[in-house]
Design goal:
57 residues, alpha+beta, two-stranded antiparallel sheet, 1 helix, 16% helix, 25% strand, globular
């Protein structure tokens, strides 16, 4: 397990890491829930971890 996988497992335990293929390109995604997908883009220098509390209402 690399450092990114360890951080995801600790901070986002309910999400599953998987690659999604879009137009022949593989994109690493963290997936949870149901319904249509939602692509959330963060700004530099943030990482995907900036969204970790956004799915909780």
């Amino acid at each position: 397990m690399n450092i990114s996988e360890a951080a995801d497992a600790k901070l986002l335990p309910e999400f599953k890491r998987q690659f999604v293929e879009v137009d022949g390109n593989k994109i690493l995604a963290l997936v949870d829930g149901s319904g249509p997908g939602l692509l959330m883009l963060h700004g530099d220098p943030q990482t995907h971890l900036c969204w970790r509390n956004s799915h909780r209402a």
